[in-house]
Amino acid sequence: MDAWIDIRRKARLCHEKALAATNGDRRAASIIAAALENDSLEVRPVDFEEGILGSLDRSSRLVNVAKNLAPVDELVVIAHEIGHFHFHHDAHNEVTHALLRLHGRIYTRRC
Amino acid sequence: MTTQINAEERDEVLFAFHQAYDRPTAEQIIDWIERYPQFADDIRAHAAVSRDWAARKGLLVAEADETMLVRAYSNALNAIYNAEIKASSTAPVPASQSFEQILTAGRKEIFQLANELGIARGVLADLFNGWMLAPVRKRLINAVCTSLSITVEAFDTALRLALQNPRLGHAKADKTPTVKPRSCDEVIRDSNMPDERKRYWLEED
Question: Nearest CA of chain B to the CA of A69: how many Å?
Fold first, then answer.
């Protein structure tokens, strides 16, 4: 579990690096685009079922975002997934669909 | 060294601040920021946390919902499993390997492999995460097998494992997420590759 203060620090650092890349352009879309590029992340629209807004695939460096989100919501979801990229390196936090059993992974994560 | 000293000093300042106020006021926060401007962000952040904690005092503890119970149960199973593995003198030899294990053994990540093969990372992601239904295009199988130095049989086994245990990574959802696997051709056609690359991987060249 990541401490709140560490989350704040990493978020600030991520924002600072992105802001440096945008040469001071503070629009959300610009900051998000720079943050994605800084981490070599790509956004992919996905036809998720209703209720799923997005997901982070760390190994693929993909931010999967539900299609047809409002532009503002899409930016919020992408920012959320960038946050996952900087934290949660423990694979036990990831969503794997498997029967609950020994050697199973965590069943689901909602955040 | 300087960084370490700063971190220790910062922790001391924050601890003193924490001891001094349960619910710091704006004036108190400003006062401490003026005294320790080098830790201004940390003081503000800690003040927010302190006020949040103070606001929660006396509130009833939230009842565990289904997600929390399932998560705790899964964590317990993982802990038992990890303990058993640690306690056993010899680790079990896997009868078959997942794509994840094959990639780890080859010290590669999906996006690196995608760059190497000249294919959209989303296509490999769907394949390796169990979002792509069999049959998989022969050209794609051969490329993956060659790059990862595995046999077609090992590929088939890994694909079966992936489909049995699809991965979603870290998901933002308001209900239990599920995955809808698609055909290989559909995944390739829906990717962000140029048409020429799509035709190549669809074996239409």
Answer: 13
Q: Say what the pTM is.
A: 0.65
Tell me which residue in A56, A61, A97 faces B179 most closely, judged by beta carbons. Answer: A97
pLDDT grade for B169, boundaries at 50, 70 and 90: confident
> H or E element: which one contains A85?
helix A71-86
Domain coordinates of chain A in residue numbers? 4-93
**With bands split at pLDDT 50, 70 and 90, how would you rate the model's confidence at B192?**
very high
Contacts of B88 (CB under 8 A, 6+ apart): none
Contact between B131 and B188 (Cβ < 8 Å): no
Is the predicted pLDDT of residue B170 greater than 90, yes or no? no
Distance from the Cα of A71 to chain B's closest Cα (Å) equals 16
Residues 110-149 of B with CB under 8 A from A: 110-111, 114, 121-122, 124-125, 128-129
Q: Hey, where are the domains in chain B?
A: 2-56, 99-201
pLDDT of residue A77: 93
pLDDT > 90 in chain A, percent:
55
**Fold type of domain B99-201:** 434 Repressor (Amino-terminal Domain) (1.10.260)
Contact (CB, 8 A) for B43 and B25: no
Q: What is the rounded CA–CA span in Å between residue B122 and residue A64? A: 9
- In whole angstroms, how far apart are CA A107 and each of A52, A89, B168? 15, 17, 11
**Check whether domain A4-93 has CATH 3.50.50, yes or no:** no
Residue A59 and residue B125: Cβ atoms within 8 Å?
A: yes
Averaged pLDDT for residues A99-108: 36
Residues of chain B neighbouring A9 (CB-CB closer than 8 A): 41-42
Q: Given the structure tokens 């090992």, which residue do they identify? A: B154
Q: What is the mean pLDDT of chain B?
A: 86
Contacts of A13 in chain B (CB under 8 A): none
Read off the pLDDT of each residue in B63-78 and give the average, rounded to a whole number. 76
